[in-house]
Design brief:
The protein is of the alpha/beta class. The protein is built from eleven helices and eleven strands. Helix content is 38%, strand content 19%.
Length: 247
């Protein structure tokens, strides 16, 4: 059940006098946000944004994440917990066995509902080392109801590998490009397609890549139009933005 259905259900029961005003109030009192002292959960976000609050797990205790997860699951929405360890997943699934885990992406998630958009978001990586960030984008897209396809390890060091996939690139509705080192792949894709390109710099690379700053600057200085850039290693941000475009 989506939050919109939940709200309509409460209002419908109130209208038909199946529940009292006080009971409806108790059901809706935490709708704007729920104050848990250590966190204020934004339950209204699904109405404003079309997707509920996503939890960034680093620097949170297992108990905090567990309490947040329990509160979010009450609203019957999809769940997305990012930057989550395998040990956190093992801790959570004792109480929430339906949760899934993507190890490379470090994402705990729960899908609800089927495919909402048949258009494809294509995710490309320059190298194999960029796959964890790309997987974070892929899981985000799929949990948000998108069809995602991946083509990995097609960086500019072997440009023929990329050119072999131009037909697939042309079919995509939105393209995410994940690249470390010098980050040139974003500009190359931007010059090959008329579709929006979201470039994700990664912290992959030797010393002078400065943990992702070098590819970040390359992507921001792209001479190819139609390329937007998210933060270093921010696969979630790229997936979320691509989902908004894909709608």
């Amino acid at each position: 059940m989506h939050s919109k259905k939940y709200l309509k259900g409460i209002l419908g029961k109130l209208y038909s006098k199946k529940i009292s005003v006080s009971k409806a109030f108790r059901a809706l009192k935490n709708l704007p946000y729920e104050n848990m002292k250590f966190a204020r959960l934004d339950h209204h976000r699904a109405f404003r944004k079309g997707f509920g609050e996503v939890v960034y797990c680093e620097n949170k205790t297992f108990e905090q994440v567990s309490k947040i997860t329990k509160a979010l699951l009450k609203h019957k929405n999809p769940l997305l917990l990012t930057r989550a360890s395998k040990s956190l997943y093992d801790f959570l699934r004792k109480d929430f066995p339906a949760l899934k885990y993507n190890g490379p992406a470090r994402v705990i998630y729960l899908k609800r509902g089927g495919l909402k958009n048949k258009k494809t978001v294509l995710i490309l990586t320059a190298g194999t080392s960029d796959i964890p960030v790309a997987e974070e984008a892929r899981v985000t897209l799929e949990v948000m109801g998108n069809r995602a396809k991946t083509i990995y390890d097609v960086g500019v060091a072997g440009i023929h590998r990329l050119l072999d996939n131009v037909p697939e690139i042309s079919k995509a509705n939105v393209i995410i490009v994940v690249a470390g080192m010098e980050g040139a792949l974003g500009s190359v894709i931007g010059g090959l397609t008329d579709k929006p390109v979201i470039a994700v710099p990664t912290s992959v690379g030797y010393g002078s890549s400065f943990k992702g700053i070098a590819p970040l600057l390359t992507m921001m200085n792209s001479c190819a139009p139609g390329v937007a850039v998210v933060n270093i290693d921010n696969g979630f941000g790229a997936g979320y933005f691509a989902s908004l475009i894909n709608k």
